[in-house]
Amino acid sequence: MGRKGSRYSIEEKLGYIHLVEQGLTAFQIERQYGVKCEQVKQWIERYQAEGTDGLKRRKLRQYSVEFKLKVVKLYLAGNTSYPQLAKQFNVPNVSVIYQWVNLYTSGKSLNTTRRDRNMKTGRKTTQKERIEIAQWVIANDLDYSGAMNQFQVSYGQVYAWVKKFKQGGPEALQDRRGKDKSDKPQLTETEKQELKVKALEARIAHLSKENKLLKKLKELERMDATQNKNIVPFKHSLKKH
Predict the structure, then answer these.
(1) Which of 98, 106, 137, 217 is most buried when burial is the number of CB atoms within 10 A of its CB?
(2) Is residue 10 in a domain?
(3) Residues 89 and 159 in one domain
(4) Contact at 8 Å (CB) between 14 and 55?
(5) Which domain of life is it from (predicted)?
């Protein structure tokens, strides 16, 4: 389980919806089956609104720069979240909005949001690398696309590693192909400490970026307020002859 939402069959989606109808919460389904609770909620909303048609795979939407900028500014203004914006503007993947915000706050163009086609196949990695990448994604609010560019791996690899790490911890990211289950190579204490430090550094960097973002937003608001204050209303009066 735990695949991307578009890769589930209609029958599978209906199955999870049925579990909710029987009393399970979306959060419990995520814990038991690895399906994101926001994904389950989205299926329920679509099913209630459109029936089974709402659960069919949808074509990939193209978003204009103006649309992306509008969503980004709403997020930066506060009082909302990525899931709320995804629901409001019918954006299927929450991480897409995170990517737009990340691009905007990094000073990059909102046109550059497509995944690198050359990274579909991924690359070979060590257990330590997989743990580091999984920790980085979690520290950065599940920025899978960001991890692709940061570590030069494929989206599928990142998604699978994060899922395994959440379910089984570092041990789940061992490469068990062709090895006996009793053979369990362990990370050294030095490697474990290095990974802890990198996870902490990733979280600090993310929070620092968020802080800079808030400062930038406040500065823009201050500039707008100053500009509006200096505008002198134009008064036109008709002269009597």
Answers:
(1) 137
(2) yes
(3) no
(4) yes
(5) Bacteria
Q: What percentage of the chain exceeds 90 in pLDDT?
A: 4
Q: How many domains does the chain have?
A: 3
Q: Per-residue pLDDT for 43 more than 60?
A: yes
The tokens of 31 are what? Answer: 């814990």
> In whole angstroms, what is the distance from residue 60 CA to residue 161 CA?
25
Given this model, what pLDDT does residue 131 score?
92
Mean pLDDT of 93-104: 81
Q: Is the distance from CB of 83 to CB of 71 less than 8 angstroms?
A: no
Total length of the chain: 241
Residues 149 and 123 in one domain: yes
Identify whether the C-beta of residue 148 lies closer than 8 Å to the C-beta of residue 155. yes
As a whole number of angstroms, the distance between CA 55 and CA 6 comes to 9
Whether residue 217 is contained in a domain is answered as no
Rg (CA), the chain: 23
DSSP H helices, 89-236, are 94-105, 127-139, 144-151, 155-168, 189-229
Look up residue 164 and give its two tokens: 């395994």
- Measured CA to CA, the distance from residue 237 to residue 241 in angstroms comes to 13
Q: Residue 148, class by beta-carbon neighbours within 10 Å (0-12 exposed, 13-18 middle, 19+ buried)?
A: buried
Tell me: do 128 and 195 sit in the same domain.
yes
DSSP structural state of residue 181: T
In a domain, 240, yes or no: no
42 domain-assigned: yes
One domain, residues 157 and 139: yes
How far lies 47's CA from each of 24, 41, 43, 54, in Å? 17, 10, 6, 5
